[in-house]
Amino acid sequence: MNFLxxxxxxxxxxxxxxxxxxxxxxxxxxxADWLGSRAAAKALALSPDAPKPQLTxxxxxxxxxxxxTVTCHRPDGQTETVCWDDLQKVDILTTSDGPLAPDVFWxxxxxxxxxxxxxxxxxxxxxxxxxxxxSGFDNGVLINAMGSTQGAIFTCWVKPPLAEESAPDAEx
Length: 172
Description:
2 domains, single chain, 172 residues, three-stranded antiparallel β-sheet, four-stranded antiparallel β-sheet, alpha+beta, 7 strands, 34% helix
């Protein structure tokens, strides 16, 4: 047997034996991963009618949103309200208290007061949608805040200054 015959036999075994077995192994691993992930998804899937899990005590705070105001009803009976027209700034306060205690709070600043709303409050999803609709709301800052485990304040939105009326000339 010459050298060329040996090379051809090696190629034959690689093409006929090794590659098909490798492809079968590769395909079966991918199929097992896919089937496993689908089975896990089905096992973990909640019924659409099942109540969503709620954070406690955060869910005892109730956010009410109207066209004119956002109000936070606290479990102790107090309420905090900010008019949308008066909203000056939106911050997110993070603390290192979590996960066993509330550690993320929305700070809504108005010129005459504000609202502090914990993440997980009932109605917070609607609040988030309304805040994200504000012109200039920074979702990148929101994402950074959600990844924070330290005490910090993240400013997501600041009311833009009103277009100033034409300034008087310096001469007069």
